[in-house]
Design goal:
Elements: H1 14-31, E1 33-37, H2 38-55, H3 60-70, H4 73-86, E2 95-102, E3 109-115, H5 120-128, H6 142-162, H7 168-181
Antiparallel strand pairs: 1-3, 2-3
Helix pairs in contact: 1-2, 1-4, 3-4
Length: 188
């Protein structure tokens, strides 16, 4: 059983893993997209998402908390000046993982991890069909569901009336034609 084993250790000690994820977070913030393996990207996502959430509030305390993880002044200023302004209205989900296939040497699954608001190609597609959605489900009123059920039963009735069933005589004629077309055996 794997109780309380949420962390993927990535084959590293705690200090090595922390340093690697900190460096990857700095690279992601500075370059907006990095190329890595899928397990590292998933581990990085758990580190970067809370950092970006903290960067929405530009206070000395939040800057110190983020600096504790990043350890880079350049990445800190980039995060608080540019990235937090772009993701200010987004309620989470700041990164996207796009799988790219497998690496040739060891067949490791590779991917891009990127900041969602910085990919212009995806933003063009979503801007044309952008809808405001909430996390809550929208339930229909009972009168709407009754009307929908009534409409669907009417369409079923009309589709049954339009279907023609083949007659018995037609099926016998088709079977006789099929037996004439079959090649004869040499033994007959």
């Amino acid at each position: 059983m794997r109780h309380n084993k949420k962390i993927n250790h990535l084959g590293r000690t705690a200090s090595h893993r922390g340093a690697m994820l900190s460096n990857m977070a700095v690279s992601l913030i500075m370059h907006k997209r990095i190329f890595t393996t899928v397990p590292k990207a998933k581990a990085l996502k758990k580190v970067v998402e809370p950092i970006i959430t903290k960067s929405k509030e530009d206070t000395t305390h939040s800057r110190r908390l983020v600096f504790k993880t990043l350890q880079s002044k350049e990445a800190l200023t980039e995060l608080f000046q540019n990235v937090s302004q772009k993701v200010g209205d987004r309620p989470g989900g700041y990164t996207r993982i796009i799988r790219t296939g497998h690496r040739l040497g060891d067949n490791a699954s590779m991917c891009f991890i990127e900041l969602v608001d910085y990919n212009e190609n995806m933003l063009k597609d979503s801007s044309t069909a952008k809808k405001t959605r909430t996390r809550r489900s929208r339930r229909r009123s009972t009168t709407d569901t009754v009307d929908t059920v009534a409409n669907s039963t009417e369409t079923v009735k009309t589709s049954k009336e339009n279907v023609e069933t083949p007659k018995v005589e037609e099926t016998k004629a088709i079977k006789e034609q099929g037996s004439k077309d079959e090649p004869k055996n040499d033994k007959e």
